[in-house]
User: Fold this.
Amino acid sequence: MRLPFIGSVSPLVVAVAVVGVAGVGAAVVLRSQRETVPLEDLTVEVAQRELTLKITAGGRVVPVKTVNLSPKNSGLLAALLVEQGAVVQAGQVVAVMDSREIEAQIFRAQGALQEAQARLAELQNGTRSEEVSRAQAQVAQSQAQVQEAQSRLQRAQQRLHRYQTLREEGAIAQDDLDAVITEVNQAQAVLNQTQANLKANQDQLAQLKNGPRPETIAQAQAQVKSAQGQLVSLQIQREDTLIRAPFAGIITQRYADPGAFVTPTTSASATASATSTSIVALAQGLEILANVPEVDMGQLSPGQLVEIVADSFPSETFVGKVRLIAPEAIREDNVTSFQVRVALVNGQDRLRSGMNVDLSFVGDRLATALAVPTVAIVTQGGDAGVLVPNDRDQPVFRPVTVGTTVDDQTQILEGVVEGDRVFIELPPDLSFENIKPESSPPPDSSTDQ
Assistant:
């Protein structure tokens, strides 16, 4: 039995893993034989090997970019122009919202803008000669009315003076005097009104000759800008009724049908319905998202080669490279890990979003690693070790310090030297429980490397 691949970990972690496997029963790993077998058939030689460190992790295929498309304003979906699986380009219209109300508002805004522009043009063009002529005629008429009112007032005042003398002499009654006084007051009021009219007509004539005041033109210009802004705002709202793809990609989901009421949000409805929170989902590209344990992060780097095996294609190995390592850890079920994104070198045409995959991050190559078959690693008394032949070619337990495990080979850091033999099978009629520890100190493998 071979130990499962546990990646590039510390010797202590590997030893613990070996303890768990060997604790089930080393007799399963090292099969017992009844016939006499030569030592060379029961053992293998410790040798220098080239090992490539690998870190394993699980992951899944995800889009490089994905977004749920929804309108900026709530409304009815008038038309859906794409189907699930359609390939779209950046800026392509994928859906159209109902815009009848906005169209009516645009017509009103266009009329208001034209009116404001006409008023401004009138002020900027200045006064026409016929308008000045009319104003001059009104001034002349007002001047004649003032002169007439002045003459009437003067006659009334003269008559009042005579009537006052006659009243003093008792020649007329008081009522006759009062009537003349009323006539004078009325003449004075008429004169005042005609003078006010003359002043207004003169001011109007002067304004026509001088042209519109700067502040009047500025006010008209501001009204034009306000009308233009209102029209542009409505035109933007109309443009927003055209739902466009923000980037090139594939329509992966459809959430709404024409006639559905759609609200502006980034979340997605589970199914198409009368009320939806999105119209379609758009995705671009594929990559692998994996969670790598914190203890393995020191052996990962951007651009690192990754071997990928998908559950859907177990006999194929796809290739990827580390694109991004998250700067912040995530913690789930008391396990700290980092998200790693892997760019696909091949397999984009076969892998699908959501597929589960197994990853092997290819690390450093150990050109001269002292290694033994992983099945040769056993435990005794909680210590990891190997079985080596004594002077009678019988297996005895020797503790070792293990390193990384790659495929079916495990690195030995201390405890054996190159050329030592280790058992991978037990001699006939010998059980693991009867194996004794080696009495002499084990050789230091570090001095031979």
Observations:
- The longest helix spans residues 129-169.
- The radius of gyration is 51 Å.
- Residues 71-97+241-278 form a domain with the OB fold (Dihydrolipoamide Acetyltransferase, E2P) fold (CATH 2.40.50.100).
